[in-house]
Structure formats: C-alpha cells, structure tokens
Amino acid sequence: MSNLFAKKDVNKLLEENAAKESTKTLGLFDVILMGVGATIGTGVLVIAGLVAARDAGPSVSISFVISAVACILVALCYAEFGSAIPSSGGAYTYIYVSLGKFVAHLIGWSIVGCYTVSLASVAGGWSSYVNNMLTEFGIRLPESFTAIPSDGGIINLPAVFIVLCMSFLLTRGVKESKKINNLMVLIKIGIVLLFVAVGVFFIHTNNWHPFTPFGVKGIFAGAASVFFAYNGFDAISTSAEEVKNPQRNLPLGILIALSVCAVIYVVIALVLTGMVSYKELNVGDALSYALNSVGQEWAALIVSIGAVIGIMAVVFAYLFVVPRILMSMSHDGLLPSLFAKVNRKNSEPVISTWLVGALGAVVAGFVDLKQLADLANMLAIVTFAAVSFSILALRKTQPNLKRGFKVPFVPFIPIIAILCCIFLMFNLSMKTWMYSIGWMLIGVFIYVGYGRNKKSV
Predict the structure, then answer these.
(1) pTM of the model
(2) Which PANTHER family match (predicted)?
(3) Which H or E element spans position 307?
C-alpha cells in the first residue's frame, strides 16, 4: 500500500533535470505560440457555431467566458507547478510528486487518452476543411476516401495523411519543427483577425435578440460543451525541459496563451452570432458559412485555406505532448522501456511519436469521433481537477520549494477551480461517464499488471 502512494523525490527530480543535456530551444514567444497553437483550432472554427445553434444561442460568448474562468483558475496551478518543477512530464509529474505513484499513473493514462482522441478528432475536422476548400476549386475527392465506414466511406484518408505528416515533422526535432509550427499558428491567428475585421461590418444587432434563447441552463450547457475549445493550453507544461528560463517563461507562457485564446473566442462568438442568426450555425465550417452568407466569398475562401493550415498546428501540438508523457511514464517504470527511447541525433522520442501517430491515424481514419470528443473532454477535466488539488498537497508537503510563481489566495483559488471542474463534469452525459470509467479501468489493469512493482530506469 505504501508503494501505491509513493511520491517522487522533488530534489532528486530537479537534480536530474539540471544534469540533462537537452538543448534549450524554446523562448517565451515560442511557448506562447505553442499554447495558442494547441488551444485555438476546432474550438473557434467549428465548436462556436455548433454550440450557438444547439445550446446557448448568442450567449455562447458568455459560455466561453465561464469556461475560460475555470481554465484560468486551473492555469494558475499549472503555472506554479511549471515554475517549481520544470519537467517534461507535465501534469503527470506534478501529481507524482504531490499525490503519489498510482494517482500519477491514472492521470498520465488519462492525458494519453485525452490527447490521442483529440488529435484524431482535430484531424477529422482538418479533413472537412480540406474537402470544402478543394470543392471551391472544383475538385471533389471520392467520398469513399474522405468518410469513415459508418458514414458510408472506406477511410478518411486526408485525416490519416495529416497525422502521419505531423508525426514525421516532429521526429525531425523540435528545433527544426518549431519554425514551421510558429508559422502555422501565425496563419491561424491571421485568419481569425481577418474574419473579425470583415465580419464586424456585417453585424446586425437584431441577430443578438433574444440573447439567451435557451435560458441560463443553455449558457451552462454551452460552457460544458465549449470547454473542449480550451483543451491544449496545458501542452506547454510538457515542454519544460526544452524551455529557456522555465521558471519565468512557463508561467508567463501559460497565462498569456490562455488569456489570448479566451479573448479571441469571445470576440469570434459575438461577431459570428451578430452576422447570422444562431439558428443557421449548425454547420462544421461556421466562419466560412457566415462570410458566404453576407456575400464575402473571397474572405470565406481565405479563411478556409487558413483553417487548413492552422489546424495542422493543433495536430502538431497534441502529437508533441503524448510521446513525452509516455516517455516520462516509461522512465518511472510504469510503461515498457520502449517508450523511453530517444533518437541520438536530436533527442526526440521517435518510437513513441510514431506509435501515437499510427494510433491517432487509425482512429481518425476509421472511428466515429462524436462520442470520443466528449471522452476527451471528461479526461481533460479530471486532469485539471487533479492538478488543482495537487497544489494544495504540494504546499503542505513542500512549503520551502523554490517557486518562480505562486497561486494567489491558496486554498481558495484551487478549491474554486476543483468545484468548477466538478460542475462541468456533471454537465456531460452518462454515456461519457461510462466511457471515461472504462478508460480509467484499463489504466488500473496496466498498473496492476505491469507498473505496480517496476522501478524507475
């Protein structure tokens, strides 16, 4: 039982991190762009319109604010951990240090599931935008190779293609790939700004009436749904060992990236629901649809092209995270040593990257992702709640640990963050709860069957 909750030694972990010869290649600007790139994607390009149509109406902007508040509270906890324990394991390592081995294994397993499912679903969204863009140019791909079997196709080949391409890019090394990622993120921000700059002149305030057609219940239901739009900001914490001056740049990067994303989401939601009636936004390409509706076809085409490029940054960020979690768990003996192997030339976890990429490609190409997206949501919320609770534990067990940033008003901020997470969890369906419990049980079986008595390598 004592081994079940054995904690990782903080001082030993910091000494090991200091002794590593990993190259520090990521500055504050790179960290912010990685966070923005991981966060902004299907949330602003797809989810905003769907939630407006189905749950909240124009008040989806308030839904984004509610979710942002919950995420910012959690982000404060991530920022303290990142400044005190700059480790590539992210939330997994934070919880290992504060709550022990078994809980860390479950959270690591939760993160792996969350991001693998997320990258597959994002790849599916990318495929839709590619098809729409090609259609504008008079090119129609065979439906057999652009739809999953349950939708009448054979395989969603574009989704498979983008996952494998991003996997290859990451195996070339962070130093080489970060420049391409930064460019993709800047393009994505550019199309968002273009949409706002053009769309603001076509806002009709009567589209905002009634502002809350589904009532307060709809606003909170919308908040639970758009929470998925903020998944990804925690990806920054997994890059800690490759960040220059992590005690400063990690907390700043996390908070700035999340704040930028929250502002963008609210502005997009207001402009989008002001351009067209929320009833018309039950479409997968809401931004392009709205621009076409007001006669701005040229802008709609640019947004579609930019979305194709920009969403690739989200796939990149998710593929960056999962292999590093697997590598950390492998180092700790919770997974086979295969996952800890890195390329001698660029220190990248090549095997783990290709394994995650292959799994993500299969899921994106063949599986219906609607329910799996909710699974990713639940697993992310569980992780965020655990990190928030871990701050309370770490403050008690490691009061003298050097921290570049401290969560203010402890214990109130972490407790409020936990309560927000619980509230959002209970706004998800019972089926999602069952899938989540099933995934966690698989993690328990892996721990009992392999990782329980293994030692760190």
Answers:
(1) 0.81
(2) CATIONIC AMINO ACID TRANSPORTER 4, INNER MEMBRANE TRANSPORTER YGJI-RELATED
(3) helix 297-331
